Amino acid sequence: MTPPPSEPRDGPSANRGVPGRKRSEQSREALLQAARELSVSVQRYRDISIQAIAKRASSSKATIYRWWTSKAELIRDAVLDQPLPMPRGDSLRADIESAIRSQREIMKTAASLPVFAGTWAELVENRVLANQGGPMQDCPLGSQMVGILESVFDRARQRGDWEGPVHLHAAYEVLFGSLFCRLIGQFGDFNEEELDRLTLRVIEAARPLSNSDSR
Amino acid sequence: MTPPPSEPRDGPSANRGVPGRKRSEQSREALLQAARELSVSVQRYRDISIQAIAKRASSSKATIYRWWTSKAELIRDAVLDQPLPMPRGDSLRADIESAIRSQREIMKTAASLPVFAGTWAELVENRVLANQGGPMQDCPLGSQMVGILESVFDRARQRGDWEGPVHLHAAYEVLFGSLFCRLIGQFGDFNEEELDRLTLRVIEAARPLSNSDSR
Amino acid sequence: MTPPPSEPRDGPSANRGVPGRKRSEQSREALLQAARELSVSVQRYRDISIQAIAKRASSSKATIYRWWTSKAELIRDAVLDQPLPMPRGDSLRADIESAIRSQREIMKTAASLPVFAGTWAELVENRVLANQGGPMQDCPLGSQMVGILESVFDRARQRGDWEGPVHLHAAYEVLFGSLFCRLIGQFGDFNEEELDRLTLRVIEAARPLSNSDSR
Amino acid sequence: MTPPPSEPRDGPSANRGVPGRKRSEQSREALLQAARELSVSVQRYRDISIQAIAKRASSSKATIYRWWTSKAELIRDAVLDQPLPMPRGDSLRADIESAIRSQREIMKTAASLPVFAGTWAELVENRVLANQGGPMQDCPLGSQMVGILESVFDRARQRGDWEGPVHLHAAYEVLFGSLFCRLIGQFGDFNEEELDRLTLRVIEAARPLSNSDSR
DNA sequence: GTATAACCGAGACGGTACGTCAAGTCTTGTT
DNA sequence: AACAAGACTTGACGTACCGTCTCGGTTATAC
Fold first, then answer.
1. What is the pLDDT of residues D142-179, one digit of tens each?
2. CATH: 3.40.50.720, 1.50.10.10, 3.40.50.10490, 1.10.357.10. Which one for A83-206?
3. Chain B residues with CB inside 8 Å of A197's CB?
């Protein structure tokens, strides 16, 4: 959607020969920063106006739409597209717990919860309108998390902590769904014990069914 | 918010002697029905306009705002406030699976997914603005589900299928979170096997931790 | 338009035998009084709401519309329909001056100027809609004034102060038009000298043209 | 209120360097024209809706409110702000008569009478709300007429037709007030004789009082 | 250097929904 | 039958903000 930083696409001098002023990376950063600031200072998604972002960034609406196709895209890039650190613990359990903590942290700090919900809702709208489906491609958090889980379980397998296939999807759903449910649903945050239990639930979700199961 | 049908609040004859035209139950139903119809015929929450609902119900904007404080409240009452049937199976597993199916059905049919997401997002906004917290009180689905889980586990205990305490909250989070994640996140629907696995995950989430736990 | 006091129409007992509660003259007076009070306490015609009048009179909207066909009619009856005293001076000049003073007083005190203008405007609308024309029949001030001028000039003729025909219409226009212009147009009020000059202008306007006229 | 055509304020190049899209003169004209058309095609002031003006002008409500603060301002600019031609006769009497005819023409053709009245009433309201007073500044007809009278009497003085001071204010009141009274009051129009008489009355009103006056 | 072209800020534009408000009508139960 | 209360339909209002477009002006490469 967003051709990020613009040069990196084909190397720094790929557009050699193209006349005209180049995009201002400074503007882009200022806009993202302004969007981030507004996102936390505001109580509703609709309170973040494109106009206000442009003004705060000493930029203009037109420049925003030159880089992003919609308000939701901008907020997503500004607020949700933050790198999740790859867990580097020495056990599957420690890694999963670390992943949960990272994601929770972003969901709590990146924006107020309603902004989070509003952005997500609008991204869903956009996607449906464009007839796109697939696994959470609009939510960087989501796609990153899938990668992280994959890598974490790989390491566990190498470590000998895990055998057989991994139900990544199920693990992801338990992890992300529970967090979402909690934070958006405003139950309040997890305490340490709940975090521990969630970790185990995620791991269990990933484990394939044995032939013996409950009633 | 909406004092529904109006009389039932204090019994049928509590407002005997109250002068003035009574609330038109016909209008109320027509508005809810119109909201329901628009909710499924439309791809985005914002495409449901108050004006259109009023027009389709042969009613008026003013009447809507007399009874609901916002568009989101109306959509919630129309679309999300549908009774979840109480499962009546002969095993815990059957009951949980039934609960999951019911909720999934509502989430899939009551409105298009983006409408669901948009409504939820706006309800979250309203709640934050009003400084209210607590467990999903704005989402009837959520609160009903908690009651259903409670009852289902109670029956399991009486049946001898369950011992000890129940982590209702955890079960709820796995169930609702996974569904939400799936349907809103547009992974597509669950197949039978996934449904089966989700059922087991919900049950496991409710079970308290034993002292022996995974790696 | 307004069936005034209602009984006088066919005598006090004409509707003997007609079942049902009789109209409350008390209500009617309370409504007029409430309209009068609101008219002076408010800056714009639109700030006088039917609802507010009804409430202040401890009456109801329905009752208002049972007696008057529109808001403007009510305000007219309440605010503009005040008796102009018949001048009883001993000279034409004194009488005219007295008439001017009376009318000015009503225009200044009966309602704020904008309320006066708004009421008039709406009365004009109603009249045009009803395809009625004719001399100011909706503005009691106007019709009374014509009568007063007529009588005043009659007495002057009897007194020997006036000979020949009277251009009542012209006198009325100068008198009423100047006042209207001044007060609605917000030039401020007349001082004594201006009042004196206006008096003379009104008298001159009534005098038929002689054969010799100005340059 | 409306900074008309926008450049002419300080000369054609005063706003050199001012960024931003310039006001669309085409929009402005289309809106004024649409307002004019609606003003004559309609029987009541309230029947001219901002929405309808915008639509007819292929413009939008937002654009209207960007340049005019209220409906009344727009109608005023569209309908009342039409240039009065300066009389160029060879006698005072001819000039005054010409001025009367011009003003009458505008009052009769610019809008239906109720629209005229409604606009004026709302302008009066606005002015009172803003605590502004002064001589008819909201009614271009009014202020133009004062200038025209001034100039006409100046020329009469140079011509030798007039001596001494002029009571402009009084002349204005008789002229404008009579016209207003007639047309708004719906007495019907002036005939030639009445016009003639009005002309003389206006001239007499301007003449200062001599020491000998009527009874 | 000078031409060209993409960028930039500012901000006006068309469009559309919102939520408010008052007018005038209708309904209900009481007097 | 008239009344107070109050819910109803209607429709304009004025606001807000989206995403687009038009300005004048500013770079940066190409010739």
1. 778 889 999 999 999 999 999 999 998 889 989 988 88
2. 1.10.357.10
3. 167, 170, 205, 209
Kindly report, residue by residue over C29-87, the tens digit of the pLDDT.
999 999 999 998 998 999 999 999 999 999 999 999 999 999 999 999 998 888 889 99
Q: A33: Cβ–Cβ under 8 A, 6 or more apart, which residues?
A: A57, A78
Smallest CA–CA distance, residue B205 to chain A, in Å, is 7
Nucleotide at minimal C1' distance from the A57 CA: E9
Task: Check residue D79 and report its DSSP letter.
Answer: I
Q: Do chains C and D touch (3 or more CB pairs under 8 A)?
A: yes
Point out the nucleotide closest to C59 (alpha carbon to C1′). F4
Question: Each residue of B165-182: pLDDT tens digit?
Answer: 999 888 988 898 888 888
- With CA of B51 and C1' of each nucleotide, the nearest comes out as E17
Number of CB pairs, chain C paired with chain D, less than 8 A apart: 160
* List of long-range contacts for A172-175, beta carbons under 8 Å, 24+ apart: A172/A142, A172/A145, A172/A146, A172/B181, A173/A205, A173/B177, A173/B178, A173/B181, A173/B182, A174/A198, A174/A201, A174/A202, A174/A205, A174/B174, A174/B177, A174/B178, A174/B201, A175/A96, A175/A99, A175/A100, A175/A103, A175/A145, A175/A149, A175/A202
Contact B145, B176 (CB under 8 A): yes
Residues in chain D closer than 8 A to C120 (CB atoms) = 117, 121, 184
pLDDT band at B3 (very low <50, low <70, confident <90, very high): very low
Q: Map tokens 């009433």 to a residue.
A: D121
For residue range A10-68, list pLDDT tens digits in order.
333 345 567 667 777 888 999 999 999 999 898 888 899 999 999 999 999 999 999 99
pLDDT in tens, B189-201: 788 988 999 999 9
pLDDT value of position C139:
65
The domains of chain A are located at 24-79, 83-206
**What superfamily would CATH give domain D82-206?**
Tetracycline Repressor, domain 2 (1.10.357.10)
Helix, strand or coil, per DSSP, at residue C7: helix
Confidence of residue A131 (pLDDT cuts 50, 70, 90): low
Query: In the structure, how far is the CA atom of residue A33 from the C1' atom of nucleotide E9, in angstroms?
Result: 18
C133 vs D contacts (CB less than 8 Å): 186, 188
Range with top average pLDDT, B116-125, B148-157, C12-21: B148-157
- At B127-155, the pLDDT tens digits run 777 766 555 555 666 778 888 999 999 99
**Closest CB to D214 among C117, C169, C203:** C203
**Which class is domain A24-79?**
mainly alpha
Task: Give which of C186, C199, C200, C203 to mutate to test D binding, by max D Cβ within 10 Å.
Answer: C186
**Whether D134 and C186 lie within 8 Å, measured CB to CB:** yes
Task: Assign domain D25-79 one CATH number from 3.30.360.10, 1.10.560.10, 1.10.10.60, 3.40.50.1000.
Answer: 1.10.10.60
The predicted pLDDT at position D6 comes to: 37
What CA–CA distances, in Å, run from D43 to B145, C90, C137, D132?
Answer: 60, 46, 19, 30
Residue numbers in D 14-33, CB below 7 Å of strand E: 19-24, 27-28
Residue A181 near residue B180 (C-beta atoms within 8 A): yes
Interatomic CA–C1' length for residue B157 and nucleotide E21, angstroms: 58
Query: How many alpha carbons fall within 13 Å on the CB side of residue D171?
Result: 27
Could you tell me the pLDDT band of residue D186, with boundaries at 50, 70 and 90?
low
User: D72 contacts in C (CB within 8 Å)?
Assistant: none
Concatenate the DSSP letters of all residues of D91-138 into one string: SHHHHHHHHHHHHHHHHHHSS-HHHHHHHHHHHHHHHHHTT--SSSTT
